[in-house]
Amino acid sequence: EYVIIGGEIVDRGHATVDIEDRGYQFGDGVYEVIRVYNGKMFTAREHLIRLQESAEKISIQIPYQPTELEEMLKGLIDKNNLSNGIIYMQFTRGESPRNHAFPHNVAPTFVAYTRKVDRPVSSMQEGVKAIFIDDIRWLRCDIKSLNLLGNLLAKQKAVEAGCFEAIQHRGDIVTEGSSSNVAIVKNGTVITHPANNLILNGITRQKVKQVCEQNKIPFEEKEFTIEDVLHADEVFLSGTTVEVTPIVEVEEKKISGGTPGQVTKKLQQLIMDEIV
Ligand code: PDD
Prior knowledge:
- 29% of the residues lie in helices and 29% in strands.
- Strands 7, 8, 9, 10, 11, 12, 13, 14 and 15 form a nine-stranded mixed β-sheet that branches. A six-stranded antiparallel β-sheet has the order 2-1-6-5-3-4.
- The protein has two domains: 2-116, Aminotransferase class 4, branched-chain amino acid transferase, N-terminal domain (D-amino Acid Aminotransferase, Chain A, domain 1); 121-274, Alpha-Beta Barrel (D-amino Acid Aminotransferase, Chain A, domain 2), CATH 3.20.10.10.
- The protein has eight helices and 15 strands.
- The chain has helices spanning 22-26, 44-57, 66-79, 121-126, 149-160, 203-214, 226-230, 262-274; strands spanning 2-5, 8-11, 29-37, 40-41, 85-92, 109-116, 128-134, 165-170, 173-174, 181-186, 189-192, 219-221, 234-239, 243-250, 253-254.
- By secondary structure, the chain is α+β, with helices and mostly antiparallel strands.
- 40% of the residues are buried.
- β13 and β14 form a beta hairpin.
- α2 (44-57) packs across α3 (66-79).
- N-(5'-phosphopyridoxyl)-D-alanine binds next to α6 and β13.
C-alpha cells in the first residue's frame, strides 16, 4: 500500500509524522473523506473546496490548488489500484514544539491514504436503528476538524445501544448524526437542518438537495425536533460512507412501519444514477 506524505507517494511503512505534529497533539487540522467508485472519486471537487474552506476557517494555508490536489489523489488511487473504497486526507498545522499558540513559518503536514471498502448495501436496503443523544460538541461544526471526540462519544453510545447512528440534538432541535447528516420526510417534503455553524454541510446532503430540486421533490432547510423525527413518515442519513441510509427505528420506536420509505428509496436511486 502506498500513501501520500509531504507531497510524495511513498510506501506506507516509510511514512512518518513527528510526535509533536499539531494534528497528533491538538487535533489541529482538517480532513476529508471521498468515495471512490470504479476507480473514480465521487464529487471530488466539492470535497476539495470544502477542505480548502475548513482550512481557511482555522488559518491553515493549503499549499495546493484543488485541481493539483485532485491530480495527486488520482495518482494515489491509480498506484494502489483502488476500484471501490475511500480516500482519506488531512492537513495539520504542522510540526512544532508544543505550544497552544500557532507557530510561525511551519509547513502544514499533508497525509492521504486509500482504503478498500464495500458500499453499505444491506443497511441501505434494510435500514438501520438510531438513538437520540445530546449534541455536546462545540459551535463550529461547519469545520471538518480533526477534533472528533464529541462525535466519537455519540457513535460509541449508539453502538453500545445496538444501534448504527446517534441522532444529535441541541435542546429539542435535531442537528446531525455522529458522521452523517439527518433528514426527515413529512407529507412528501424532505426536511434537514439549515447549513449553519451547528452542522457539517455534507456533500451528500447537498447532492440530495440537488436531486430533489431536479426532480421536483420538495426540499426544505429548516429546524425540526425530536418529536418531528418520531412522527416523520421517513427518516434517513446522508454521508459519504453511508450514502443515503434509511432509519427505520429510533429509540426502539418504528419509523415508516420499520421499513425504508418511498422518498428515501427514490433518493437512493437518483444518487445511484449520478455514480457512473
Ligand atoms: N463524515 N456530518 C458529520 C459530523 C460528518 O462527519 C459527515 C461525514 C457528514 C456527511 O458529510 P459528507 O456527505 O460530506 O460525507 C455530516 C465522514 C464521512 C467521516 O468522518 O468519516
